[in-house]
């Protein structure tokens, strides 16, 4: 009998990144390899240049000899079944021309990120290299310039949708299959991304994240798109999912270095890893509520316990009781189990609160009446409230609007939020906290104070 174990190898599509090295770890080859692994690929690389840089800027750059670049490309392609490639910092005209020559033989998708200027403003490409990009773009499945890079490549400054459409069409005229004109460098409250293909022009608008920590965002986005193409996703799906991923990676960026920081390349992976723990915590709270019999606080519409993952951005990232918790003859019981996406009302309020206070992860809705109001006052908790009657007609959703009304990033958040209801809407109290234990203890504490008040 042998003691050796049978191997169980995994298969992932191989993705090749051709880019410069970033000693700061936020951009370049380092960002690409992290992102490729996080999005389901196996990363290989051909380093074009070595830079000494960090979150504050680029101190120096050394371009590798062309023969070393060629040796890396030959080594990867002779051994691996490459399914997609992407380019980043190419530095010189000779490097661009060399990569374009190799790209002419690629039988897999190629994403060209025309890295010309770092987020810190440092120039990463010579003027001669800018002129040499035409041949490489002609081999591209997708080109992903930001506004500044699009202006260099097309002589169009994409400051609005019309400009982005025109810039994208000019990139296609250079021979690319598609162009994604990124709007992150264009000032405004919204970021506009425009995907131009021969068949369609698709636009995506999303709120700007108020941060300068975008170091590595272009590298990370193009690496994510290339990996998804390698996995067989359509161009539209690969771009759409990668843009959503990028928004989360920027919002929950790494607070590292003395500069603004770097994007979080593994944010989706970390978020998914927290799902089981989050669901278990919600289930534990529900079980405790049943044992403690918090029936006096269950609204007629039912109570729900919602737990958001650490990087939650949508109701699908929030675990809740499917069918809510309802009253029984002498207690309470959950209607069904805990499931992600099971709550809309409480989950959206929690997500709205997280826009100002991302530390919030758990929320519970409770009954509200005069007795509950008296109990809240006796506890001395900080309380806020909103009036549904003041909701503007053009509000996207009531819970999103309500959360914006009562939470501000520059103020301490309230412990409880009161909704006095409206016609057809039951009054409720919402309790929020950063951890499940705290919000659960507050519910029980409120139940106890409510009971004490009735006994007086």
What's a concise summary of this model?
The protein is built from 15 helices and 18 strands.
Q: Top keywords for this entry?
A:
single chain, 456 residues, alpha/beta, UDP-N-acetylmuramoyl-L-alanine:D-glutamate ligase, L-fuculose-1-phosphate Aldolase, 2 domains, seven-stranded mixed beta sheet, six-stranded mixed beta sheet, 15 helices
Strand order of the main beta sheet, please? 14-11-10-15-18-17-16
Strand count: 18
Give me the secondary-structure category.
Answer: alpha/beta
Low-confidence stretches: none
Can you name the CATH architecture of the largest domain? 3-Layer(aba) Sandwich
Biggest beta sheet attributes: 7 strands, mixed
- Give the CATH class of the largest domain: Alpha Beta
Our Rg estimate from Cα atoms comes to 26 Å
So what's the overall shape? elongated
Structure write-up:
This protein is of the alpha/beta class and 456 residues long. The protein folds into two domains: 14-266, UDP-N-acetylmuramoyl-L-alanine:D-glutamate ligase (3-Layer(aba) Sandwich); 274-455, 3-Layer(aba) Sandwich (L-fuculose-1-phosphate Aldolase), CATH 3.40.225.10. 38% of the residues lie in helices and 21% in strands. It is built from 15 helices and 18 strands. It has helices at residues 28-38, 66-79, 93-103, 127-131, 133-137, 147-154, 161-173, 217-230, 235-251, 267-273, 275-292, 345-356, 370-379, 398-406, 436-455; strands at residues 14-22, 42-54, 57-63, 82-87, 110-112, 142-143, 179-181, 190-196, 201-207, 305-308, 318-321, 325-327, 332-334, 338-340, 362-367, 383-386, 416-419, 428-433. A seven-stranded mixed sheet has the order 14-11-10-15-18-17-16, sandwiched between helices. Strands 3-2-1-4-5-6 form a six-stranded mixed sheet, with helices on both faces. The longest helix has 20 residues, at 436-455. The radius of gyration is 26 Å and the shape is elongated. It starts with 13 loop residues before the first strand and ends with a helix. The relative contact order is 0.09.
């Amino acid at each position: 009998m042998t003691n050796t174990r049978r191997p169980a190898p995994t298969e992932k599509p191989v993705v090749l990144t051709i880019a410069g090295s970033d000693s700061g770890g936020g951009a370049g080859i380092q960002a690409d390899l992290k992102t490729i692994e996080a999005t389901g690929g196996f990363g290989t690389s051909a380093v074009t240049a070595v830079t000494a840089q960090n979150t504050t800027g680029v101190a120096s750059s050394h371009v590798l000899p062309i023969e070393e670049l060629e040796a890396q490309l030959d080594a990867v392609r002779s051994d691996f079944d490459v399914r997609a490639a992407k380019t980043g910092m190419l530095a010189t005209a000779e490097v661009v021309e060399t990569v374009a020559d190799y790209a002419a033989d690629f039988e897999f998708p190629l994403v060209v990120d025309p890295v010309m200027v770092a987020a810190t403003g440092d120039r990463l490409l010579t003027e001669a290299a800018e002129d040499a990009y035409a041949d490489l773009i002609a081999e591209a499945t997708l080109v992903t310039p930001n506004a500044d890079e699009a202006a260099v490549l097309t002589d169009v400054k994409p400051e609005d949708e019309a400009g982005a459409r025109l810039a994208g069409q000019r990139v296609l005229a250079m021979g690319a299959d598609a162009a994604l004109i990124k709007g992150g460098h264009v000032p405004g409250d919204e970021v506009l991304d425009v995907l131009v293909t021969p068949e369609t022009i698709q636009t995506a608008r999303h709120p700007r994240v108020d941060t300068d920590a975008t170091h590595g965002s272009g590298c990370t986005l193009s690496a994510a798109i290339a990996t998804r193409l390698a996995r067989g996703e359509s161009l539209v799906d690969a771009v759409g999912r990668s843009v959503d991923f990028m928004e989360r990676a920027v919002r929950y960026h790494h607070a590292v270095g003395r500069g603004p920081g770097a994007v979080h390349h593994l944010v989706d992976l970390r978020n998914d890893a927290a799902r089981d723990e989050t669901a278990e915590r919600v289930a534990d709270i529900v079980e405790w509520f049943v044992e403690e019999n918090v029936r006096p606080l269950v609204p007629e519409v039912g109570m729900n316990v919602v737990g958001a993952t650490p990087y939650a951005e949508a109701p699908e990232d929030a675990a809740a009781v499917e069918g809510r918790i309802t009253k029984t003859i002498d207690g309470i019981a959950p209607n069904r189990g805990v499931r992600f996406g099971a709550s809309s009302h409480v989950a959206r309020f929690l997500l709205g609160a997280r826009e100002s206070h991302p530390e919030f992860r758990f929320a519970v809705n409770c009954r509200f009446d005069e007795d509950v109001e008296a109990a809240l006052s006796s506890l001395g908790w900080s309380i806020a409230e909103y009036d549904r009657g003041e909701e503007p007609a053009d509000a996207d959703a009531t819970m999103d609007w309500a959360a914006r009304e009562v939470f501000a990033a520059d103020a301490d958040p309230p412990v409880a939020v009161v909704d006095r209801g409206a016609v057809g809407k039951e009054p409720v109290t919402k309790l929020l906290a950063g951890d499940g234990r705290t919000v659960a203890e507050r519910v029980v504490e409120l139940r106890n104070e409510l009971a004490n008040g009735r006994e007086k």
